[in-house]
Amino acid sequence: MSSSQPVQRRFLTLEDVAEILGLNLPTIRRLVRTGALRALQIRGRKVWRVGIDDLEDYIARMYAQTAADIAAGLIDPEPGESG
After folding, report:
1. How many CA atoms lie within 13 A of 54 on its CB side?
2. In sequence order, which residues have a C-beta less than 8 Å from that of residue 37 and are 6 or more positions away?
3. CB-CB contact of 14 with 29 (8 Å)
4. Are 32 and 50 in contact (CB under 8 A)?
């Protein structure tokens, strides 16, 4: 393995995930606690990481859920910013 190749990040902090999704940290913690967003605990009680692939899977599931909810008439298909 060549040392000239940059190391690609495999995991994100919960703070990183909150920033990427534009959500607050308590919301991300709730997603992890409920199992909606897969995460793992690394040494210590409060050190959590989310795999980049797990975040991508969560986003894909949310796209699919949103499309299904629009098709079912459960949400307004007109995008808008709230909260």
Report:
1. 17
2. 17, 28, 31, 50, 54, 55, 58
3. yes
4. yes
Q: E strands within the chain?
A: 11-13, 40-41, 48-51
Q: Of 65, 23, 19, 15, which Cα lies nearest the Cα of 39?
A: 15
Q: Return the structure tokens found at 1.
A: 């393995």
* pLDDT tens sequence across 13-64: 999 999 999 999 999 999 999 999 999 998 877 799 999 999 999 999 999 9
Q: What are phi and psi of 45, to 5 degrees?
A: -70, -30
Say how far apart CA 28 and CA 48 lie, in whole Å.
11
* Distance in angstroms (rounded) separating the CA atoms of residues 48 and 42: 6
Reported confidence tier of residue 7, pLDDT bands at 50, 70, 90: confident
SS3 label, residue 40 = strand
